[in-house]
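Quick one:
INPUT:
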């Protein structure tokens, strides 16, 4: 099967046609590579040379949250081949999840810092939660950009994963302060906490080869 390769060099801008294909892809693979403590820089450089850059959307290291991790997000057609395993001496664990995109990716805008949130929803309430969230996103996007929203196709399927782009940490703090003062957003969040089991957040920084940065 032919495979189209999207290679990003430095901080170059994605071509319009490539951005459209990435934005509209319905499925994504999120792979988390865990390095030995203190050796994440070696893992990132090894992936830059040896890793699979096919349909790469973004690649980040974790600054706050579970450390020594490289997160790689790739768009995938329904008949995509399994991404080849990446091996390196500092690699300690690999977790791969297939995700279904809930709305088109928003690729334009700042992403010097990315927040990756995972919300675990009560069984039976996923579609209720997701519907409310998607309806309320325009309120939250008054303050910062939502890059994408996904539901997993494997593992704990009662989850919603979402990615937010910011210029820097200060930008994130300003956006969240504004959002929580917004009456529309506050009315929304009052309706969803009862549907949730857990909330997890990671602050990520783009690698030098990440398309999103």
């Amino acid at each position: 099967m032919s495979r189209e390769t999207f290679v990003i060099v430095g901080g170059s801008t994605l071509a319009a046609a490539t951005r459209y294909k990435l934005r509209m892809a319905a499925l994504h693979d999120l792979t988390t590579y865990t390095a030995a403590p203190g050796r994440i820089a070696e893992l990132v450089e090894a992936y830059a040379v040896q890793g699979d850059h096919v349909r790469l959307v973004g690649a980040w290291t974790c600054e706050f949250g579970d450390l020594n991790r490289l997160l790689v997000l790739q768009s995938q057609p329904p008949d995509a081949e399994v991404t080849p395993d990446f091996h390196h001496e500092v690699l300690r664990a690999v977790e791969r999840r297939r995700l279904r995109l809930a709305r088109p990716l928003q690729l334009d805008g700042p992403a010097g810092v990315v927040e990756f949130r995972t919300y675990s929803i009560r069984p039976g309430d996923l579609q209720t939660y997701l519907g409310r969230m998607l309806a309320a996103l325009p309120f939250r996007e008054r303050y910062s950009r939502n890059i994408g929203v996904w539901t997993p196709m494997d593992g704990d399927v009662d989850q919603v994963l979402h990615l937010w782009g910011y210029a820097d940490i200060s930008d994130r703090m300003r956006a969240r302060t504004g959002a929580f003062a917004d009456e529309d957003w506050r009315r929304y969040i009052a309706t969803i906490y009862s549907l949730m089991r857990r909330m997890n957040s990671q602050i990520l920084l783009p690698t030098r080869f990440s398309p999103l940065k």
